[in-house]
Amino acid sequence: MLLFVTANSCKQEAKGEESTSNEAETKEADPDIENETEEVLTQASPRKQASGQVDGITINIDYGSPSVKGRKIWGGLESYGKVWRAGANETTSIEISAAAKINGESIPAGKYGFFIIPMEEGKWIGVFNEEWSRELHGAWGAFSYKLEKDVLRVDVSPEWAKEVMETLEYKVTDSGFEFVWEKVRIKFEVQAE
Q1: Helix or strand (DSSP H, E) at 185
Q2: Can you give the pTM of this predicted structure?
Q3: Which of 67, 74, 49 is nearest to 186 (CA)?
Q4: What is the mean pLDDT of residues 37-49?
Q5: Could you tell me which residues come within 8 angstroms of residue 19 by beta carbon, excluding any fewer than 6 positions away?
Q6: What SS3 state is found at 109?
Q7: 103 phi and psi angles, rounded to 5 deg
């Protein structure tokens, strides 16, 4: 609702008119504002969260969830051999409440930017990076990714399913967390340090 008033106020002030906070008057003044606002509020790849506990460690994952929409994902939309933000829009973040081992490799407690490097053959790479926030680090997806900020890289074996998972999803399980999108399923094992 505030966006309706703000958008209309800017247009009216530019025309030298008084601004109004009445929503009905705002829509009458410019009916296109409602449509523009709905587009802003409805994201094609909405933010989602996955949370849970594994071996006494709390894991929180925040990510953008894109859809397949009939596209070729691996080796198409997402190139093989390149760092990918493991979600959509802003950087995917994973917060781990205590020191842990992920796929047998140590990582301190903290919040990390999470990336995946898909490979055409063999194992893929899961990347945990110091920079996870646009506000704090200037991180936005993988566009600002810095190799020197990596805290941990782990090899993971993708599993290929017959059925397509239309929207990207993370799940915290009894043994760690999973990434699922299109026909790829990747499991990360988590244990207390």
Answers
A1: strand 176-192
A2: 0.76
A3: 74
A4: 70
A5: 5, 8, 9, 12, 13
A6: coil
A7: 50, 40
